[in-house]
Design goal:
seven-stranded mixed β-sheet; Rossmann fold; six-stranded antiparallel β-sheet; Methionyl-tRNA Fmet Formyltransferase, Chain A, domain 2; alpha/beta
Length: 314
């Protein structure tokens, strides 16, 4: 007997959702429509650009729907007409109303990049790295009206490596999440899944990062600052100030030794710029000064008159 293939409406916008859309197509499921955020102005020229999910859907010849507001009677009627078995919602960008959640014949499922109920919210990958966690995971949940609060269908834990940044960990979790999504759908087809309520005593949150979250506080330990650099990569970036201009840090490492006040440059070499912190020292390897391009520290040093004893920050 040929395995049943689900009729699916896919909701997604960001990079994290692309691997799952690819996996659903590769598995032979019938993706009836892809719902994604409207095109937005991007880049210095502010030209309208599609979401990464829209680009993938276009490449696969899938129907695309881009409502500004999903929770309207018009959108509900549009979605009902597909008679879908399942809605798959991943990094879409809007919270679905009770009416929209009730449309599919089965229910709506979501991939969340944490071991729920830990790190509910928009930025679980970022905050797990920033907070120095050694592991995170993927949760497949049945969507509920309350964000990230639905019962768990499947979960899998993954280590956070010392050299992981937001971008590397996001890709690994996106790919692993796509695999777990396929396994979850198989269990839904077989009707042998279990819905496990989340433990309310273990809830923690991962709110969307603000630009101010990236500001380096040099009085903090070097390890914490390094975690911020890794976790804030892509947005908002860890940053400090150099001669009144924003200085973004792209790559760094932790060294032993202090000896100077926090934020003071301790050493300048081809390996980078060493800065004193509240505990240990911090090596800047890649950076970008406001108005300039991203570069290695060695190149930055060659173009600027840095001196030992100079202080970073306002």
């Amino acid at each position: 007997m040929t395995p049943y293939k689900m009729k699916i409406i896919f909701f997604g916008s960001s990079h994290f959702a692309v691997s799952s859309l690819k996996a659903l197509s590769a598995e032979g499921h019938n993706v009836l429509c892809v719902v994604t955020q409207p095109d937005k102005k991007k880049g210095r020229g502010l030209h309208f650009g599609p979401t990464l999910v829209k680009q993938e859907a276009q490449a696969r010849g899938l129907q695309i729907y881009q409502p500004t507001q999903i929770n309207t009677p018009e959108c509900a009627d549009f979605l009902k007409a597909f008679n879908a078995d399942l809605f798959v919602v991943i990094a879409y960008g809007q919270i679905l109303s009770k009416e929209i959640l009730s449309i599919p014949l089965n229910f709506c499922i979501n991939i969340h990049a944490s071991m729920l109920p830990a790190y509910r919210g928009a930025a679980p990958i970022n905050w797990a790295i920033i907070n120095g966690e050694k592991a995170t995971g993927i949760s497949i949940i049945k969507l509920s009206e309350k964000m990230d609060a639905g019962p768990v269908i499947m979960q899998k834990s993954f280590p956070i490596h010392d050299n992981d940044s937001f971008t590397s960990l996001e890709q690994r979790l996106a790919d692993s999440g796509a695999e777990l999504l396929i396994e979850s759908i198989k269990s839904i087809i077989k009707q042998d899944y279990k819905l496990i309520p989340q433990d309310k005593n273990k809830i923690s949150f991962a709110p969307k990062l603000k630009k101010s979250d990236g500001l380096i506080k040099w009085e903090r330990p070097a390890q914490e600052i390094n975690n911020l650099v890794r976790g804030a990569l892509a947005w908002p970036f860890a940053f400090t100030y150099y001669k009144g201009k924003i200085l973004k840090i792209y790559e760094s490492s932790v060294l032993a030794g202090e000896g100077f006040s926090p934020g003071v440059i301790m050493d300048i070499s081809k390996n980078g710029i060493t800065v004193s912190t509240g505990k240990g020292s911090f090596l800047i390897k890649e950076l970008q000064l406001e108005g300039k391009r991203h570069m290695h520290a060695e190149e930055f040093i060659a173009g600027h008159k840095l001196s030992i004893g100079e202080k970073l920050g306002k």
